[in-house]
Design brief:
Shape: elongated
Number of strands: 6
CATH superfamily of the largest domain: Rhodopsin 7-helix transmembrane proteins
Strand content: 5-15%
Strand order of the largest sheet: 4-5-3-6
Largest sheet: 4 strands, antiparallel
Order of helices and strands: HHHHHEEHHHHEHHEEHEH
């Protein structure tokens, strides 16, 4: 092995991770569950990078103490990489679906696999079937140790499938540049698997984490920090695309949460924020690859619907179908809710016409939405 190359690669990895931690500390981005998971992945990568360097430095140097330390460092390094891959699956899902309740149900096999890896590491102390450190303090990867790489690749494949399935069902409803992380990571893994002594795994991971973070930061001004939906600023970009598009025609739905002020006044703003997150989740579930949800302002949302240029009536039908799915999502939430509030949307839609201004388009949606809100109020009076 080339110790100089190992120190350079892992030193570069450590510097990238340190810069990433400093940047995240300065922006105080560690409040949401996704931020905490991301930070924990970084910490695991830092520990793993340090321990891997230590194992290469100690490898081949005699002494009982160094042999025990070498074995310990390798074991913890395995635990760090395995845990980081498992957390990555959760991180991807949380960025897309923003629902912690999904994790235990959807990824129970991943959790079981991680648990088995931890048991195997403990058993390796006595069996030496994953790796051994011989009397000369030289590390030897054993055939059974490749099962850890199977877990790593399995986790990353599951995360990609989760991402592709979400995009197939919901299009660009949520922004998440998964390939910025996966590409350098996969390259480094496929280099490291067959060749022990080539230290690029953590460097690939570090490059991927930094790339992912930079990409998210570059788009953060276009994404609502609370709900994860595209924000009002991004609507302007979407409207430019709609106006210039020759392939598609568009319609829009404006939505407002009924009695949202009452939720805030009765239960507090933190519960109000929770209601906005739940509302955004319903919109994501109701949209498909040809529709995308935005947080417009406060408790107002917009969904843009598109179809290949052609029959406007078909577009109208698709728009109404999205509205029906939104209604179904709210009914599902309200019937099975574990919170003290209900969520009901007032909705109005309008067809986009390039002969009219964007303001007219939004104004027409707004008028239709308030007609629906008035109908809801009349129904409430009749029920009371």
């Amino acid at each position: 092995m080339n110790m100089q190359e190992i120190l350079v690669a892992n030193g570069a990895s450590a510097m990238l991770l340190a810069i990433l931690l400093i940047c995240r500390h300065k922006t105080r981005r560690n409040r949401r569950v996704t931020d905490k998971i991301f930070s924990f992945i970084i910490y695991l990568a830092v520990v793993g990078t340090f321990l891997e360097t230590m194992t290469f430095v100690m490898d081949g140097h005699g002494g009982a103490f160094l042999r025990v330390l070498n074995f310990f460092c390798n074991s913890v390094e395995y635990a760090c990489t395995t845990s980081a891959a498992t957390l990555w699956v959760f991180y991807v899902d949380m960025n897309l679906y923003r629902n912690t309740k999904r994790l235990n149900k959807t990824y129970l096999p991943v959790i079981i696999s991680w648990s088995l890896m931890m048991v195997l590491l403990i058993g390796n102390i006595f069996g030496g079937y994953a790796f051994t450190v011989d009397g000369a303090n030289v590390y030897h990867r054993q055939p059974f140790g490749y099962i850890f790489y199977v877990h790593l690749l399995g986790c990353y494949i599951v995360s990609i499938i989760t991402y592709l399935r979400f995009r197939a069902n919901h299009g660009k409803a949520q922004f998440f540049p998964i390939w910025m992380f996966m590409t350098p990571l996969f390259i480094s893994i496929f280099i490291a698997i067959p060749f022990y002594g080539i230290s690029v795994s953590f460097l690939g991971c570090s490059i991927g984490l930094v790339g992912l973070y930079m990409n998210i930061q570059s788009k953060i001004s276009l994404v609502d920090g609370l709900t994860g939906l595209y924000n009002r600023a991004y609507i302007e970009h979407a409207m430019i695309d709609a106006r210039l598009s020759k392939r598609f025609i568009f319609a829009g739905i404006m939505l407002d949460i009924d009695n949202f002020k009452q939720i805030n006044d009765t239960y507090g703003h933190s519960v109000g924020d929770d209601a906005l997150v739940e509302a955004s989740r319903m919109l994501v579930n109701a949209t498909d690859r040809n529709s995308v949800a935005f947080r417009y302002a406060g408790d107002e949302f917009i969904v843009l619907v598109r179809m290949t240029a052609g029959n406007a009536e078909e577009l109208r039908g698709r728009t109404l179908a999205v509205m029906d799915r939104i209604t179904a999502e709210t009914e599902k939430f309200n019937n099975g809710r574990e919170v003290p509030y209900r969520i009901v949307f007032s909705m109005g839609y309008s067809m986009f016409d390039t002969d009219h201004s964007d303001d007219e388009f939004f104004h027409n949606m707004d008028l239709e939405m308030y007609k629906d809100k008035h109908r809801h109020k009349e129904l409430e009076k009749m029920e009371n």
